[in-house]
Amino acid sequence: MDTKKRYKALVLFHLFGIIHRNFVIKSKGGTDSLGNKWKPLAASTKIYKPLLPSERRKFKLRGRTKKEALSSREPLILILTRRLEQSLRPGQVVDDRYIPSPEQIAKVVGSQVIVGSKVPYAGDVSAKRPAIPENIDPWIDEAVQKTLRQLRSEARNKLK
Question: Can you give the pTM of this predicted structure?
Fold first, then answer.
């Protein structure tokens, strides 16, 4: 096994874990670990965005207008089909290779890390609500630290 390739693969794996975790936090209206928060959905979007299967039982009209019935609804931001969210989930590490999730951009070229989504509308929605923030250096540092701990643990286990 090539340790350098495994290192790069693990950095990508851990980085996408961090990216995905923070994407989900922002989709629920929260603030990510870098202090970024997405613009909330407009009231009209909350009302007219299609209901997810899990919401259909909860939000019944029962003689109310759609606006009245759905006024308390807090739908997830940038998650309807889950296509974008799934493209940011960590892929797999097999031996010393990182196998990206479908529609995921993942490369390490020298000391440069290139990550993103191939989902066609990712660029359009990122104008208002970036899936991956501009400066992810702290997340890369966190991924590197997780990778080093994992490699250290793997080395110890091999020596036993």
Answer: 0.88
Residue-wise pLDDT for 45-84, tens only, equals 888 877 777 777 777 777 877 777 777 778 889 988 899 9
Q: Supply the pLDDT for residue 100.
A: 97
Cα dihedral across residues 74, 77, 83, 87: positive or negative: negative
Distance in angstroms between the alpha carbons of the first and the last residue of the chain: 18
CA distance 33 to 121: 25
Task: Compute and round to an integer the Cα radius of gyration of the chain.
Answer: 19
As given in the structure block, the two tokens for residue 127 are 């104008």
As given in the structure block, the two tokens for residue 102 are 């479908």
In this structure, which long-range contacts are made by residues 49-57, counting pairs with CB atoms below 8 Å and at least 24 apart in sequence? Answer: 49/75, 49/80, 50/80, 52/80
